[in-house]
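User: Teach me something about this protein's shape.
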Amino acid sequence: MRTIRLVGTNEEYPIGKILCIGRNYAEHIKELGNETPEAPVIFIKPATAVIGKGEEIVIPPYSQECHHEAELALLIGKKGKDIPVVEAMGLIAGYGVAIDLTLRDVQAELKKKGLPWEIAKGFDTGCPLSDFVAASQVKDPQNLRIRLTVNGVVRQDGNTSLMIHRIAEIVSHMSGIFTLEPGDVILTGTPAGVGPITSGDRLVADISGVGSLEVSVR
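Assistant: First, the predicted structure itself:
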């Protein structure tokens, strides 16, 4: 069973639910031609999708178009249900770097048919995830630069200040649907600049004050 390590502490958390937010940055919504949602768009990835620093992404044979999406990840440290926005930040134990991989061609085809698109998001290796830093070490999680490079070329360069739904709102909203438990991870959406990756590519995602994550494509 994979665990999440909280850097600088002796704390480790078995990975629980990976709860993800889609369409949370306006420019990313525009680049994909989607409508801006009134409420957060939620989907889930299984713990088996997680890989760590230095590991390899394996693009499933049923897809010809896998996209990268760099995101700020939240580690839940306390159990909570129906948590008010003003108390939501207290559930966060740490912050990390995630890459939400999306099989864009598979997702698009399933969406056309009105079908669920978990197989485009939750496949094995579809959630590269860094170690986490303690929440107390991040002064302002709502003002962090997010960058992602592919083979040294910058693809994404945004800031968490551009989120449509803020971090506290996301945690509160999630807790109204799912009971949040220690070890759960929340991905908060990606800024603009998503694009395809292919065999041999090297990806580096970096969030200021949080850390970096480097993976490659088999």
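Now, about its shape. The chain has one domain: 3-217. The domain at 3-217 is CATH 3.90.850.10 (Fumarylacetoacetate hydrolase; domain 2). If you'd like, I can walk through any region in more detail.
User: That's plenty for now, thanks!
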